[in-house]
Amino acid sequence: MLIYLPIAEVSVNIFVLLGLGGLVGMLSGIFGVGGGFLMTPILIMIGIPPAVAVATEANQIVASSFSGVLAHFKRKTVDIKMGLILMLGGLAGATLGVQIFKYLKSIGQVELLVTLSYVMFLGLVGSMMFVESLNAIRRSGKPGAKPKKKKHTWIHGLPFKTRFRTSGLYISVIPPILVGVAVGILAAIMGVGGGFIMVPAMIYMLGMPTKVVVGTSLFQIIFVTAYTTLSHAMQNFTVDAILALLLIIGGVIGAQIGTRIGVKLKAEQLRILLAAMVLLMCGKLALDLLLVPSELFSIGAGGE
Amino acid sequence: MLRIFFIAVSIIASPLIAQEDVVVDLSQNRVDITTTFSGSNIFVFGAVKRDTPLPEGIGPLDVAIVVEGPLETITVRKKEKKLGIWVNSDAVEIQQAPSFFTIATTGVLEDMLNEGDLRDYAIGLDYAVRPQPMDNMVGEMESFAEAVMRIREDDGLYSQREGVINLTDDTLFEVAIALPANLVEGDYTARVYLIRDKNIVADTSVEITVRKAGLEVWLYDLSRENALIYGLLSLLVALVAGYGASELFRRLKR
């Protein structure tokens, strides 16, 4: 059954969208990531204009992170103060990101920017995760492997220190703001929540305890993606409500199923699977840039 | 006064020039793009009117029907390899590209009509895209215009079907025009030409209105005119869905 999307102005099979939402939702439930980094490129592949894919995906992430953060609030694993500070940076970053997006749309290079960002970040994060989980699997064989002690780094020398009670940290607000800005730019340009960048940054750069990382990241992502959705809706007119709704319906159901599958798998296996998936997507996108395209020409709206 | 003169002249002259006329009707003049729109078929029915019997030795009658969507300005970009990767580089703006173009005929176009008329009346896919001539890149423009035709033919937006119209008794004809699901709204025209001895002997045109309807038009208008409310509405839907899902599954778990 085909459904006509009013903003994207294309007809897409409704079951393809529900299924996609469900599948990506399931993966995000298993691995605890937003799934935006998978969904946006897939949407572009099935013929949704890149600008619409990015903006609409931001809207979908609002739904999935909201659903997720409610569970974390009940378990009290959200560092609200840290989340708000990350959010401040995130809003600034998203504002910048939407402007960059708008400019590149006007010179016809949005596609390149989105693809390049994906290749770069997926490649980076994917290989880091892959190496790390390989090491973890090797380590788990030997008993008595000690966790690393907290190191005193340059981060602890910065001014404007404040106490984050939930995370048990006393650090400067500058690093969280910078992390927020970086993630905000990514959210606006790539149509992702940025969890896959923020989670490692929170653990390794800020030294936050793992149990509050996911909840806090989701908390911050809601605000930044909500803001991104609004900005895209108002400045680029690229949020497709019908597309978002279908992805959300599929996504929330898939996520719940995924969460249940997730608890049955081992953490290291999970991480290495996710890393492989990220690298696969990265490789596919990189090939698109490197191989001779089957069609050299593309048609865009006039005056852009 | 002048007008009356012209009417009088045309009445006197008409039996000589317009021996044949064409009457056309469509199965529908309006296409609504609703949420479940998956393309549409429009039937063009036509009849040839003759006041006087045909003279001896006159050539066979041919019919060409062109259905054309609203003209748009588009930007066509060409990818080029730069620093090892394929990026958009050259761009050409084409002012008059129809969003949709299809032609159906009784025979082979080139055999039916003279080249000048084919070009002047844009009869045939070769004349669908009319790039403004630019002195410095004539050859280049050609390849961009060809790309538009190629891409839109693949998308089912442009087509040329020769020999699909059946002309019954040199008088009646009909043809189905398939409008694809990826239609753009606007005013479409169906142009019908009667052709004899490589010349157009009569022509007429009918308008087809293609509009988004129902929820589609409501959402689209809202997104352009009240972008803030549209954006907030999208967010509200997301929050309600997120909350609903987590509540639903919490209850199911028990």
What attributes does this structure have?
heterodimer; A: 304 residues; mainly alpha; two-stranded antiparallel ribbon; 5 strands; 7% strand; B: 254 residues; alpha+beta; Immunoglobulin-like; 2 domains; six-stranded mixed β-sheet; four-stranded antiparallel β-sheet
| Bulk shape of chain B | extended
Q: What are the secondary-structure elements of chain A, in order, as H or E? A: EEHHHHHEEHHHHHE
Number of β-strand runs of chain A: 5
Distance from first to last alpha carbon of chain B: 90 Å
Encode the helix/strand succession of chain B as letters: HEEEEEEEHHHEEEEEHH
Task: Report the end-to-end length of chain A measured between terminal Cα atoms.
Answer: 33 Å
Using the alpha-carbon principal axes, give the shape of chain A.
globular
Q: Largest sheet of chain B, order of strands side by side? A: 2-12-11-4-7-8
- Range of helix content of chain B: 25-40%
Provide an overview of this structure.
The complex is a heterodimer of chains A (304) and B (254). Chain A has 304 residues and is mainly alpha-helical. Chain A has one domain. Helix content of chain A is 71%, strand content 7%. Chain A contains ten helices and five strands. In chain A, strands 1-2 form a two-stranded antiparallel ribbon. Chain A has a two-stranded antiparallel sheet with strand order 3-4. In chain A, helix 7 (195-205) crosses helix 8 (210-236). The longest helix of chain A is centred in the middle third of the chain and has 32 residues, at 110-141. Chain A starts with a strand and ends with a strand. Chain B has two domains: 20-212, Immunoglobulin-like (Sandwich); 214-254. Chain B is built from six helices and twelve strands. Chain B has helices spanning 2-17, 109-112, 115-120, 138-154, 215-225, 227-253, and strands at 20-26, 30-33, 40-50, 61-68, 71-82, 85-98, 101-105, 158-161, 166-168, 172-179, 186-196, 199-212. In chain B, strands 2-12-11-4-7-8 form a six-stranded mixed β-sheet. In chain B, helix 5 crosses helix 6 (227-253). The radius of gyration of chain B is 25 Å and the shape is extended. At the A-B interface, strand 1, helix 3, helix 8, helix 9 and helix 10 of A face strand 5, strand 6, helix 4, helix 5 and helix 6 of B.
